[in-house]
Amino acid sequence: MKPFDIVVVGGGGAGLYAAMEAMKTNPSLNIAVLSKIYPNRSHTSAAQGGANAALGNKAKDDTVDMHVFDTIKGSDYLADQDAAEVLCSEAPKIIRELDNIGTPWSRMDDNTIAQRPFGGAGRPRCCYCADKTGHTILQTLYEQCLRKGVFFFNEYFVLSLSTEGSRSKGLIAMNLRTGKVEAFRARTVIFATGGYAKMYWNRSSNAAGNSGDGQAIAYRAGIPLKDMEFVQFHPTGLRKSGLLVTEGARGEGGYLINTKGERFMNRYAPEKMELGPRDLVSRSIETEILEGRGFDSPAGQYINLDLTHLGADLIKSRLPQIREMSMYFEGVDPIEEPIPIRPTAHYSMGGIDTDIYGRTPMEGAYAAGEAACVSVHGANRLGGNSLLEILVFGRIAGHTAAEEAGRFEPGEISRSEIEAVEQELREYMKPSGHYERYGTLREELGVTLAANVGIFREASKIEKGIADIKGLKERFAHVRVFDTSDVFNTNLMQVLELRNMLDLAETVAAGAYAREESRGSHTRTDFPVRDDENWHKHTLCTYENGKAVLGEKPVTMGKYELQERTY
Amino acid sequence: MKRYAYYLSCINEAMTKEVDRSLELWQHDLGLEFVRMHESVCCGGSNLDYVSPKHFALVNARNIAYAEKLGLDLVTSCNTCLLTIRSAKKRLDESPELRDEVNAILKKEGLEYKGTSEVRHLLWVLVEDVGLDEIRSKVKVPLENYSIAPFYGCHILRPSTVLGKDNPLEPSSLDQLIEALGGRTIDYDHKNKCCGFHTLLVAEEESLNVAAEALEEAIERKADFIVTPCPLCHTVLDGYQSKALKQASVTASIPVFHLSEMVGLALGYTPRQLGIKRHIVT
Amino acid sequence: MGEHKEEMRDVTFRVLRFNPQVDNKPYFDDYTIPVEKGITVLRALNYIKEQVDPTVSFRAFCQAGICGSCGMRINGISKLACTTQVWDELEKCKVPDVIKVEPLRNMPHIKDLIVDMDPMVDKMKKYSNWVESTMPESKMGEKEFLISEEEFKEYDKSTDCILCASCMSECSILRANKEYVAPAILLKSHRMNVDSRDGIHDKRMAELVKDHGVWDCTHCYRCQETCVKSIPIMDAIHGIREEAIAERGVRDTSGARHAEAFMEDIAKKGKLVEATLPVRTNGLGWTLKNLLPMAFKMVMKRRTPPPPPLVKASKGIRKFREEFNEMTSRVKREQKDHKK
C-alpha cells in the first residue's frame, strides 16, 4: 500500500485547518485525518469567546503590533517574539478567510465582522459568533474538509509513533469500531490532539478526552515537550462541574463579588478590573477564597460572578449559552442571581516543541494547536488567542507538511511492531489477583495535581505531587480492563488515556519543580518573583529510560524588551 | 349553554362527515352549542404557509374574524386546522404590520381581525370548559368494557410553542377523557407519534410505514379500538389501514373512532347514529 | 448560607446492552445507584462505568452540552445525557425510579448506547452541507464579506446545531425510510441556502427536491420538539419549500404540485377539492394504480370526496375571492419592487 503523504492526528480546529490547507497547497496529496471522535465533536467547539485579530473594525487605531505586544506582555515575556509576530500578523487574514468560507461571525452595524473587548487586550479585537465561536468555526472547517474530500478515519485511537532512525514513518492506531490495531505509514504526521489540562479531572473545564494523547505519544517517541509546567486556570469555572463560564461574561460587563459585596478586582487590577489577564484574575479569586472572603457550599468555596445588572435582554441575546449552562449544571439563572464560580484548569500552554513552521525536532513529525508549543503563549495565554493559534498554526503546519512530504519515502511498519502493540493492549485485559479501578486513579490524579501543582505552588507541595504521581503510576500497572470486547471498547480507551495523562503529569510536575520563579500561570509561593536572570527560558522535557529529563531552550527575543508585567 | 364558533374543516365536509354529524347529536347534552361558520375557508393545511405566507395570513385572519364577529372562540375538530389557524394567529398577534395589511383587505366585507377570539380544539373544550367531572356525570353508557388506544396526532401537540396545552411528548388530556367516559386507556409508545398523513400523496410508502407502526402497537397492546381527535389521522389509520398493514405483513385489523364518536357512544348514541358504519374498518 | 446536604435517592438505570460479538439481540441491564440531586444522567452513567460495570459503553466528550456526543434516548426521548438532570427524569419514569436509557434510533446500532453516525456525515456530503464560496480561493483572506444583521439572524439559530442526531432519532419519516434526508441535514441545507456567500444554492436545491428530500417531511414536529438546542427546525424545512416553489415553480415535484393545489382551490372555492388532489399531485397514472383499489370500498361506504362541481363553495365566496386576488396583486407588486 502507498504511504499517506500526511496523516493528521486530531480533528479539531488545528487538525482540520491543517488538512484543508494541505489540500489547498497540493491537491494531489493523499491526506488523512485520524480522530478518536467524530471531528465535529472536538473540544474546539467549547471555545465560546472568540479569536483576536487586529482587523480594526471596532477600534480603528488597532494594529498588529499592538496585538503582538499584548501577546508578549500577556505571556510574561516567555513567548518567542518571532512566533507572536506570525500569530498576530496572520490573524486578520485567517479571520477573513474563515469569513470567506462561511463562518457566521457576529456583525456590527456597518456589516463588518464584530469585535469585542477581551482580557489583556489593549483594543477590542476579539472576533466572535455570539458565544458559540469555536463551535461555528469547527463546523465550518469540518464542512470545508468534507467539501474538499479529506479522508477521515473517525473513531481511531492513536497508540504510538513509528520511527525509522531519527525520523517518523507513521502511526499505529486502534480502530475503535473493530478493535483492530492498524498501521498508517506516512511521509509526515501532524499532531493536533489538543491540550492536556484534563489531568486535573474534576477541577478542569476540559472535555473528558483532553488527555494530551498526541503529546504523550510524541514524548514516548523521544520528541521533547516544552514549558509543560504552564497550565492556565480559567478564573470562572462553575463550582460543581468545573465547566467554563466564558470571559465573554466579564467582557459584557459582569462583576466578581466576594462575601463582603466588594468588586475585589480593584485591589489586584484597578484599571482593567474584571478584564485583567486570566492568571491574575484566577490568583485574585484564589486569594480571596484563601483569605476567607469566599462563599461556603458543600461543593467547596466559591466567588460570585454577577451578571444581574446587565439585564435579561442582554444576557439572552449575547450570552445565551452561559445562561443555559448555569441553569443546566449549577441550577442558577444568571438573570436572577449571581453564578457561583471558582478557578478551573482550562488550557495548557506547554506542548510538543515546534518551530514557527510547525516542525518538531523529529523529522517528519509536526504539531499544531494546543498540542504544540511554538511558543506564542509563553507563561500565560491571552483570552482570544487560543482559537487564533490553532487556526494560524494549524494552517502553517498543514502547509509545511504538504511542502515537505515529498522528501521522504517511509519504510514499512513491521508486523512485529504492530503485534507488540496488540500484545500490550491484551495485557490490560488479563485477570490478576489485585486490581485497581482506573476511575479512582484518574480522580486521585486530579486531586493531587490541583492541590500540589495547581494555582499556588511551592517545593514541598510539588514534591508531594511528584510522589503521588509515582504512586499512581505504580498502581496503574494493576489497572484491569474488564471489557474484553473488540467493538468500541471505551473501557480500554479510557485506560489508555489515563496512561497518557500520568506520563504527562510527570512532565508538568517536573517543570513546575525546576522553575524556581513565578511567571504567568506558574506561581511559586517560595519564589514569588519573576527571575529573568535564571529563568527567562523555556524548559524542555525529554523521555529517557522511562524518566522525565529536563533541558532548556532560549526564548527568541525581538523588538520588545523585558518589562515588569502590570495591568 | 356555552357557545362556540365552529370552523368547518374541508375534510369533515367531504370525507369524514361523521365527525360533525356526531358532534351535532350530542352537543346540547353537554351544554355546548357549536355555531357553524359557513363562511369558513380552507385554512391552507400545512401547505399554504410556504406557497404564500401572505395569503395564509389573510385566509386565517378572515376565519378568525368571523368568530370574533360572533364574539365567540373558534373551535375546530381537526388537528391540522388547529395548528394552522393558531400559527396564523400567532403571527398576526406578533406583527402589527401584517395585521394592518390584512385588515386593509378584510375591510371590503366589513371584517376586522382584532385578536380577541381564541383558537381551540374540541378536545380542549371538553376537558377545560365542560370538565371531566361534568362529563363523567353525563355518561349514560360507560365504555367500561373497552381498552382504548388514544392517538393524539401531532398537530394538537407540536410545536408546543404554538399549541402548548398538553406535554408535547407525554400528553394526557385524551387519556383523561377516555377514563372520564369509563374506558380503560392503553399507554403505548405511539400515542403521541405521527400518522403519516401529510406525506401520503408524496411519499406513500413512508407514510404507510409510519401508520403501520402505530396500528401494530395498538393491536399488540390488545386495544379494542383507537380513538383520535383528528380526522386526518383517522383517514390514514382507518382508510389506509388495510394497505398499511399489508405493507407491514400484518393480518389483524383495528377500528378507529373519532373523538366525537367516542363521546357520542358514552352519551348513549348508537354507532349507526354516529356514522361509525361509514368507516372502512368496522 | 450554611451547610446543606443535597437530597439523595436510589435510582435504577435500565440500560440497553448489546455487544454484537456475543449477543444475538439487545437486552436491558439494571443498575441501581445512589444519586445526589443536581446530578446529570451522564454523570450517573460515568459512575456506573467507573464503579459498577466498566463494560457499559457510551460516547461522551465535552460533558457540557456543546459537542453532541452523548445523544441517547432517556425515558424514550432522544436528548443529551450531559444536560439532562436525573431529578427531572424521575418525574417521567413509567416504572417509579427506573430511568430507561437506550441508544438513538434510526441509525445502525454498534454497541450498547453507541450508534453509527456515518449516515449523517454521508448525507451532509450528499446535500452539500457547506458554503461553496463565491470568492475564488486565490482571493481568500484579503477581504471580508459584508453581511447584514438580518442575514446573520437568518442562520443564527441553525448554526446552534451540534449534530447530536436527536432529531434524526425522533424523525417519523427517517424511521420509515433510512434514505430520507433527515431533519438535521435539512436544517443545515437551509442554513447554507440563505447564506449570501454561498454559490451553489441551485445545485443544493436540485438535490433537496428529489425523492427522499424536503417534500417527504410529514410535519410531525418531533424534530423541533426534541431539539436539544431548541432550534425551530420546521422553519428551515418550510423555508426550503417556500424557496423551492418560488424559484423552481410548482410543477417539478409532486410535493410542490400538492402544495400549489391548496392555493388553487382556496382561490376558487375557499375549500379544498379533495377528489382531484391525488391526480393533481401525482398524475392520473399514479392515482389509478394507487387509489383505485381503495376507491371501491370508499364508494361503498359513501366516503369518496365529492367531485369538483359538487364541492360547495364557502359562504360569501365572491367577496372572499376579491380579497384573495387583491392579496395576490399586492404580493406581485412587492415582488416586483423587491427585484428592483
TrEMBL record, chain A:
InterPro entries: FAD-dep_OxRdtase_2_FAD-bd, FAD/NAD-bd_sf, FRD_SDH_FAD_BS, Fum_R/Succ_DH_flav-like_C_sf, Fum_Rdtase/Succ_DH_flav-like_C, SdhA/FrdA/AprA, Succ_DH/fumarate_Rdtase_cat_sf, Succ_Dhase_FrdA_Gneg
Cofactor(s) listed in the protein's UniProt record: FAD
Subcellular location: Cell inner membrane
Protein name per its UniProtKB record: succinate dehydrogenase
Topology in the lipid bilayer: Peripheral membrane protein
Known catalytic reactions: a quinone + succinate = fumarate + a quinol
Signal sequence extent: none
Classification lineage: Bacteria, Pseudomonadati, Chlorobiota, Chlorobiia, Chlorobiales
Pfam family, one: FAD_binding_2
TrEMBL record, chain B:
Domain Cysteine-rich: 4-86, 149-238
Source organism, top-level taxon: Bacteria
Keywords: Oxidoreductase
Protein name: CoB--CoM heterodisulfide reductase iron-sulfur subunit B family protein
Taxonomic lineage of the native organism: Bacteria, Pseudomonadati, Chlorobiota, Chlorobiia, Chlorobiales
Automatic annotation (TrEMBL), chain C:
Signal peptide as annotated in the record: none
CDD domains: fer2 (cd00207)
Matching InterPro entries: 2Fe-2S_ferredoxin-like_sf, 2Fe-2S_ferredoxin-type, 2Fe2S_fd_BS, 4Fe4S_Fe-S-bd, Beta-grasp_dom_sf, Helical_ferredxn, SDH/FRD_Iron-Sulfur, Succ_DH/fum_Rdtase_Fe-S
Protein keywords: 2Fe-2S, 4Fe-4S, Iron, Iron-sulfur, Metal-binding, Oxidoreductase
Transmembrane segments: none
Domain 2Fe-2S ferredoxin-type: 9-107
Domain of life: Bacteria
Listed cofactors: [2Fe-2S] cluster; [3Fe-4S] cluster; [4Fe-4S] cluster
Pathway: Carbohydrate metabolism; tricarboxylic acid cycle; fumarate from succinate (bacterial route): step 1/1
NCBIfam families named in the record: dhsB
Family named by the database record: Belongs to the succinate dehydrogenase/fumarate reductase iron-sulfur protein family.
Protein name (record): Succinate dehydrogenase/fumarate reductase iron-sulfur subunit
Organism in which the protein naturally occurs: Prosthecochloris ethylica
Record lineage: Bacteria, Pseudomonadati, Chlorobiota, Chlorobiia, Chlorobiales
